[in-house]
Amino acid sequence: MNATDSGSEQPKKKIKHPLSWVTSNYIAMGIPFSMVIWVAGTMFKDLGHSDGEITVATASIGIVWSLKPFWAGFLDMFKTKKFFVLSMEFVIGVLFALMGLALYLPGYFGAIIGLMWIVAIASATQDICSDGIYISSLKKEDQAKYIGVQSMAWNLGRVIAVSAVVWLAGYMQSSMGMTPKAAWLYALLASGLGMGAFGLYHMAMLPTGSVPQEKQGRSGKAIVKEFLDSAGDFCNKRSLWGMLAFVFFYRSGEGLLLVEAPLFMQGCLEDGALQLSLVDKGTIDGTISTVVSVIGGLLGGAFISRFTLKRTLFILALCVNVPNACYLYLSYAVTPENHLSFAHIATLVSIEKFWYGFGFVGNMLYMMQQLAPGKFKMTHYAFATAFMNLILVPTQMVSGPLADSMGFKEYFFWVMIACIPSLIAAWFAPFPQLKAPNEEMSVDDDSLLDEDDRKVQAASRRANIFSILSIFVFLMFDVLMLGWMRGAESGGAMVFFLSFFCLSTILKIILAIKGIRAGFNTLSVSKPLKGGKDFVSNAKGAMIAGFAMVAISIVLSWYCIDTARQTDWDCAFSANAKACLQPHAGEQKVCQVKAVKR
User: Fold this and answer.
1) In the chain, what is the greatest distance between 2 CA atoms, to the nearest angstrom?
2) Percent of the chain with pLDDT over 70
3) What is the DSSP letter of 209?
4) pLDDT at residue number 9
5) Rounded to whole angstroms, how far apart are CA atoms 478 and 550?
6) Which fold would CATH assign to domain 15-206?
7) Architecture of the domain whose range is 237-433
8) Helix, strand, coil percentages in the chain from 3-state DSSP, rounded to 5
């Protein structure tokens, strides 16, 4: 979301009724995100790629949406928000068409992944400016009035992508006799035409979106300074590490399901998967799942409103995680001889999705109410959602390789174990904002602090910054390098990834040690003071995070050294490099057991 936190705006021109553009705008936002995160995995699975190959390649692209705050402020310097929304919709439409055409290239997998990265950047830019139009074109009462329409429309975009596009590809294969590549070519072309149609419609219907007056004519230097100020203010929050722990771990189990669960529904019966047709999978994973998730979310919101977030947060965590057992049950119930019916599968998946929707609202509301309040409310909420998405990337990337190596029964058992950090984080989640004078003011506002508080807050801020940067380097660079190393096709690429990883490890350790030292300094500063005790926990949290990053760096360094030692470098620099580095890449998986038709 665009980081427009305060300030007057230009007078708004008369705009068309919000329903005429809010609905279509957010449908158009939901489609590209869903195409990249979910539909691409379904397509690659249909073309015979392994779960490990799919999740490592596609999950890493999710990082792009976490980086939106880094370029959001610069978009106000050029053109209008409407210009960027229209441009991105047309660009995404062309990219979808290119993805379809790329299917017939010899190295289509890598080419499509590259195009998906560009789609993600365009989609994230579209999100920033679409949210900006919504905020700047509607009065506050109308923003609240149409927030439900906004959410519903985004989910409708997900239905169109995950259900309609997948259904179309499946229908053309089962009823028209097309090959998988031909069917997906037409499905992607149809998706591209759809995005182009949204662009044409929005040329006439979408408001321009005003720009706050204080942002007009600003330099890039001023925007960078505002971003750094907001980041520093974020690190001033008391109980920061307790709140970040909640953001990091609340979706720990979910991250292992987001990409892998749909692949489990599509995989072969002889591998312990459900082997649904594309038509049935699109119906369950797209339409039914979305509908029950929305209903669950509405009821979850009502539940929180009735009993308050603090009293219900642990219950919401149970609702998000415990129903994951539905997939564990399905993995044990299905066998090549015991094909599960469509109704059986749809019922179990719907149960999981309903309770996921019910409990997920607690995650978003916690970030809005505890992490966001203050001078930079919108920016801090963007930071919180960025961290939330970043932590999902490693779990999604590792989900496929783990499922391939373990088998689905053992994998879904470990998914249940991975829920434990989520429950612990919810049980101990702090609620510092309950002490604030009002909902809008941060409890850490300078006017509410005494001199001792300010001294300890300033010392702990330094520790927080270094430790958060260390975590960011790990999630942003280390995770990507480790994932991309699995797809290295030459010795040169492998050397590059290992070298880059060595540099990021050095940087990460330096930042972690600085965070630890700053944490100890904060403890020293706080000892003679009577106040400031509320910020001591930040110093301790930064130290724990720093030590954790050092430990992780040691383990990952050993892994990379072992990888370098076991690599046949002579072969890696030969003409057969890809076969040496990826012995199972390109193997097309064809199900041997036929699934029972519905």
Assistant:
1) 79
2) 91
3) -
4) 44
5) 13
6) Growth Hormone; Chain: A; (1.20.1250)
7) Up-down Bundle (1.20)
8) 80, 0, 20
